[in-house]
Predict the structure.
Amino acid sequence: MKKRLVIFGSGDIAQLAHYYFSTDSDYEVVAFTVDAAYMTETVFCGLPVVPFDEVSQKYSPDECDFFVALSYSKLNAVRKEKYLAAKAIGYRLASFISSRATVLNEGRIGENCFIFEDNTIQPFVTIANNVTLWSGNHIGHHSTIKDHCFIASHVVVSGGVEIGEQCFIGVNATLRDHINIGERCVIGAGALLLADAEAEGVYIGTATERAKVPSTKLRRI
């Protein structure tokens, strides 16, 4: 018999969580929940949506696990808040780890993690609680990702890197080996980090500018 799961959220990430848990896990999603003030519908993905302040009465923590399916809003603070609130009322927090990910770290992955397909997690990596790894990342050996981080797609984390709590790392960013990223850092898309990053730092890669020559003038394309 599959384990029962309640998902917090009713947006794109919640829909993705429903898809992944339903097709690639031992869980059966039975309901969604959101804060009462944000309820706009009573059915989502064909399942009931209930107010969060009523969820434990209708879907007991003794019978259901819980997953918080939120993004990196307010530097992951919203997802952190709901993760802690679900724990406070007694829920066990589920993690999703894609069967199409390469996971070699002997299961050192915390609660409420969302690990998509094509991630490579090398030996001796530690991933803490409430961490999202979108598709296609490389997490190098002996690295640590602390609580409430969000790592977008195709990020390269080299060996021995430590990433502090509530960091956001954008697509195609690269972190060299043996550096420390302070808590609540934002590392933008395509950024290259070669040294430690102090807490609450913002590191933005250079965007590609439009060439002065229009595409109609290019002779070899």
In short: The helical segments are 12-23, 52-58, 77-88.
